Fold each of these.
Amino acid sequence: MYQEVAGGVCAPKGFAAAGVHCGIRANHNEKYDLALIKAEVRCAAAGVYTTNKVCGAPIKVDRAHLKDGYAQAILVNSGNANTCAANGVALAEECCALVGEALNIPAEDVLPASTGVIGQPMVIDPFARGIPAAAAKLAATAQGSTDAATAIMTTDTHKKEYAIQFELGGKTCTVGAIGKGSGMIAPNMATMLAFYTTDAAVSPALLEKALKTVVPGTYNQMSVDLDTSTNDTLIIMASGLAGNPEICEENADYDAFVAALTAIAEHMCAEHAGDGEGATHLITCEVTHAPDLKTARAVSRSVVCSNLFKAAVFGRDANWGRILCAIGYTPGDFSIDKVCVWLSSAAGEVYVCENAAYHPYSEDEAAKVLAEHDILVKVDMGTGDASAKAWGCDLTYDYVKINGDYRT
């Protein structure tokens, strides 16, 4: 149904990107810290943002700029979150004006985003240097996407980008993505920065609806540390250059578009969770036969968010009681009597819990399963037809080390 292609956010028709070093971080002399994504045409656009009451200034600007449902460029900096700064909104607006001038587009069609340390002073000088440099470097190539993906990284250990192709209305369409986020990630909306581009033709209203349909079962189901960031942002721009009939209603093409967005979002969630700060394992929890979707999602989140289970995975300890415990404290009215649990990876699978009780298994085999990077926890609740996934990571010593000296 989907085919992975190279190019990230530059894979869809009509998009170029760049990453440059502009000097936002005084202690990083060469790291790219400013990314720019530009569309050839004015695009339908939509965004979803943090639920934190303390939010970054760029989010306030984005919401204002997206009132008409259109945009043409995205500007992202790393190193400073532009949150809780007295001049934050004015600075974000000034950055949009600089991008507009450099690209010859209205400033209102520019969507800013920031990530980094919260509460630090911010000045326009690095942007005044970096924006013209990024505009001059824009490239509709895989390297352009890679440079942009690199520029938005903070504690990420590797860049995160992905693109897939699919069919809509007889036309080949593409969705591409870049993202960042390894810490301050909790299941509470788009818990990081992510930027999607597509050449599918979708109306602004249906694009927003599709995005808000996909987020609850993907980005809201991801956690590293239960801290919801102040700057969480997920933006999508649709150029329409693939030539498919514009999606203006909830029809078969709309369903296919939502399915494609879901596929790329699930991939990106696994990328983020697997690269959690200090992590050595990606933990995916799949819940099946739950009484309803709300319960399935809640139970899977509880498992990947359990610090005790996360620590057990780090120690390669098949302590399934911690999984059952997490299921048991999940809010909701449901029975645990038929809960069964398996631990699975490329090394095999062990059946550890049957009907909420111990199922005989080999500790040695379980340790081999947990030695792999990607760990799958399968929970069968035996009480219905609903299913859901959640993504998380193990809890390691390095998580504390990284966050103990984050500002230095």
Amino acid sequence: MTLAVTPHTQVDRSAGVTAPAGFRAAGVIAGIKPSGKPDLTVVVNDGPEYAAAGVFTTNKVKAAPVLWSQQVLTAGKLKAVVLNSGGANACTGPEGFQDTHKTAEKLADVLRVGAAEIGVCSTGLIGERLQMDKVLPGIDAAVAVLGSTPQHSLDAATAVMTTDNVAKQAVLIHPDGWSIGGFAKGAGMCAPNMATMLSVITTDAVIDQPHLDHVLRNAVGKTFNRLDVDGGTSTNDTVLLLSSGASGVTVTPETFEAALTTLAADLVKQLQADAEGVTKHVSITVKNAATEAEAVAAAKVVAEDNLCKTAFFASDPNWGRIAMAVGNAPTAFDPQLLDITLNGAPICVAGGKGVDRSEADLSGTEIDVVIDLHAGSASATVLTTDLSHAYVEENSAYSS
């Protein structure tokens, strides 16, 4: 599947982190997961540049790998990232941080670089220490099979999956001779306040670290932060962006931000489509708000409201629930001017009943909600999903 950016540029989901020049990756079975599925990923930047940036969870409870990666990124460069699924290494105390440090040291030793040049990410059950007797040999196994083919990219994206059903990756090849690729994982506990669960993005463009950091934050704010599956901001949320500069093409921050935003938006659409128990893909647009921040806040209240989410699941055009949710948002507007449109049907007009509910057909997978506050000129869109039987069953059947 591709998403048009310009007549000459497309997002392609057949490859990911290894598509940009200068990167190798691998995903292997380390034995961390009892299921025996792939659970350890390594992404290596072979240079010649090593600029890197990251955004992390705003949750006060931060996992050890988040604390580690935040610390090493103060230097603004990474030569490799190691990620594991099957254990979050969150709420594990000083010992958990030591485990993260050992993980970074192990990969650094194998690659003959410094531990302070290694990013670490983990995902899985909170509160349990990692099985280091599986993690450390797993790093050896991953480094032994590093490569830059599309299969290596897919393997890397697969080994970070937890409750995800499919791997999520994408690449954008720019006509000017540089590219950007990445993978993401996340299906539940998704209400990112920086990123989603885990994502690694690579580029062979030449761009300095301060600009890399700036454009990443801007792009995340417009994409990953606009996905809200269930209101849960994870302890481990991380997005890392690595630049090899291997294309030799210097890119303006504006051009790079546009491409990064397009790539990230595609990854977010894949996350939405694979959310836990999803049967509906819901887009909530709030327009004519006083500020963009208020538009986002109103859309998020609707996205997280269980009564709205269950109505979406039932294909029920119950606009009263949406009006109720918007009324609880920290957003200034006149209720007598409120308009709500569901899949093109103006079902609420001027704060009251619009067309008959039967005109709002929500029977398909896609539901488009447009809320007009008539309070300004700002707008924002948040993506969410429905609250289904499957979501409840999946999240009550096991610890996550």
Amino acid sequence: MAWKYRTGAPWRDVPERFGKWNSIYKRFNRWAEDGTWEKLLAEVQKQADVAGKIDWVVSIDSTIARVHQHGATLTRDTGGSAESQESVVRAA
């Protein structure tokens, strides 16, 4: 499992020396479902915190995702054109 995530390779490319890729994948999913990965992370974090190796400062990113240039010019239903809205205001 570590090799797969370290390399970013697909499951099917896990070297045969580690076992059958499908068995490794099934074990990974089983551990995800039964909470093994969460327990492992909590234990590693606890040990690192005791050793003073974790800085618990949190940074929140407020990045804005801009629309693609072709998406910005799509027509939208806004309830009419600006000209028709203007004539309604003048008539009132």
